[in-house]
Amino acid sequence: MKQIEGGICAVRGVSANGIKNGKMGVAVIHAEGPAAGVFTKNKVIAAPVTLSKGVIETQHRLSAIIANSGNANAFTGDDGFLDAMEMATVLAQKLNLKPDTVAVASTGVIGRRLNVSLISERLPEVLEGLGSSPECSRKAAKAIMTTDRVVKEVAIEMDCGIRIGAIAKGSGMIEPNMGTMLCFAYTDAKVPADVLDAALRIAVDKTFNMVVVDGDTSTNDMVLLTSTCKSGVKPCMDCLDDFEEGLIYVFTELAKKMARDGEGATKLIEARVVGAKTYEDAKLAAKAIVRSPLVKSAIFGKDPNWGRVVAAAGYSGAELEQEILSLSFSGGGAEVELVKSGEISSSSDLDLLKKIMANEEIVITLDLNMGNEQATAWGCDLTYDYVKINAEYTT
């Protein structure tokens, strides 16, 4: 596979656009075909999530997505659901689509009524610029940003010719468990909805569900995957295997972009747990490490306080034995072993360790030495700016 330009618009049959004015943004993506989705597990569920989940579960296909930033349309009762329905209906009328095949997504402040009329007023401008250029994909990605600092999009072409592209947003309130974390992914592979669903769940579990910025799970988390079936490539088992591999790659790249762009973040933390007895053990330990406020603070301070790492793994619920685990920190092409088979390493190069901690990406590798399973989680450091951003979010 290879990365290509164009984001979602690199996928045949996808057109998109978006506008962003201040905190308010509107994005539209038009692409018809089989679809699947995964949604927040928060018990406080935003109206757009309820609507879009219903569309996926009943129709198993999408014709378009309309998304807004600046208002989450969450905890807004029946009015909120009617507002989400109105967004879908207005877009469907303008594009001559069935309203029950339009998904709706929102991100922003919780508990405030959505101004649908403002979205409707801006919709003609969005639709006028609807297109399939790389710039159209970027405009859609930018329109759904809230506290994000960078646009998040990835596109690839597989060796067999099929393409996968996705845009996403998320920098705070992120611990997806399927932040607000939104991802709209497209492929031109000719695959039915049930195959999309299976591949999507595997990919999300290994990628987005392994991202922790601040440990909060949003009311609005949503990942949607649609196939336009326009690649011209006949489906085969090899292609389906490649498709799943490609989807995991795209989502991994986006997951890392989210973690790196965490609110106020200065460093990306990658926790690799290997040698676990089960995948669940590896997953628990890896997420605990990147979730730990003490680990995140130490990384921000360039402090190689590895005791916080083993402590986090120890309370994670993963099966481990401290007498046999090994631990190392790496970054910038260098690595320092801190613990080997339960013993503190006496040969650690402290000067090299200081250089590693100064890197913008820190890799923590924990070997449990109990089996062959492994998992990777991504997070970011905890900074003064994170507190400032979230202390002033609505004011």
Q: How would you characterize the overall build of this protein?
A:
- With 395 residues, this protein is α+β, with helices and mostly antiparallel strands.
- It folds into 2 domains: 2-260, L-amino peptidase D-ALA esterase/amidase (4-Layer Sandwich); 268-391, ArgJ beta chain, C-terminal domain (Ubiquitin-like (UB roll)).
- The chain is built from 11 helices and 16 strands.
- It has helices at 47-59, 77-95, 116-128, 134-143, 193-206, 237-260, 279-291, 293-300, 307-315, 350-357, 384-391; strands at 2-3, 15-21, 24-39, 61-71, 102-109, 152-157, 163-169, 182-187, 211-212, 222-227, 268-276, 326-331, 334-340, 343-344, 361-367, 373-380.
Reading off the top of the CATH hierarchy, the class of the largest domain is best stated as Alpha Beta
Structural class from helices and strands? Answer: alpha+beta
First and last CA, distance? 45 Å
Number of domains: 2
**What fraction strand?**
25-35%
Shape annotation: globular
- Specify the CATH homologous superfamily of the largest domain: L-amino peptidase D-ALA esterase/amidase
Mean pLDDT: 92
Q: Topology as H/E string? A: EEEHEHEHHEEEHEEHEHHHEEEHEEH
The low-pLDDT segments are: 173-179
